[in-house]
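Below is how a single chain appears once it has passed through the pipeline. First comes the sequence as given, then the structure the pipeline wrote out for it. We keep one example in the README because the format questions we get most often are answered faster by looking than by reading.
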Amino acid sequence: MGKSQFQQRFVAFVDILGFSDIVKRMAAEEHLFTTVRDALQKLSSQSRDLTQYRRKKRSEKRSDIRMTAFSDCYVLSESSSFSAWRVLAAVQKLGADFLTEGILTRGAVLLGEAYHEGRVLFGQGVVDAYKSESEVAKYPRILVSAEVRKEVWGYHTGPTWNRGLLKPDVDGLWFVNLLTPSLSKWWLLANPETPPVRSHLKQVREALIDAWKRAKGNPAHESKVWWLIHRFNRVAEEAGLDEIKR
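Resulting structure:
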């Protein structure tokens, strides 16, 4: 049997939840057009930045990170010859930024076989990440497989990254913590204007209150939004913020 053309890659598949509903609401809520436009431009910009970063670092053999954004979802991947921390850092940064704008995301990050070159991507790893996002995640959380969790454990040893980059859920699954701004020191993600955690959570609180109001009357949406509100309420008191009530 010939050599496989696929690579073992850390693959992240992330979807923007409720995208069609957001589009429908644009006629009545004009600010949503700007919110969605800016979100998709951010995805496109991040993809270009990562491509440039990869090309610069290829000669130094430091990274093989790739990103493809399409419609309301995106895929990030990195060869298993390198670490998964860049994929996790970028996913956390994008998800946390989107959350402050009231945009909820759901996804999965795992290790699997994939071919990823430009906008061409396929392979069992991509299929498995998509299925995990659509069938297992259920709530607005970005799941992380055991292999990925083991790979990134101990990276970013600052007080929040060391204890809060990944969180366990009651069902035994682990997910990326978006209730904190990105604290990555990676220059491509670093932002000198990154707000402190409390300021980030204040923005998240307003976004979640708005999302909860919109979800009322739709049990499926209510359960998803309340899952995230429940996570917020667990850290609200420590940040000096009021919980969100039903």
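The longest helix spans residues 31-58.

See the next section for the split statistics.
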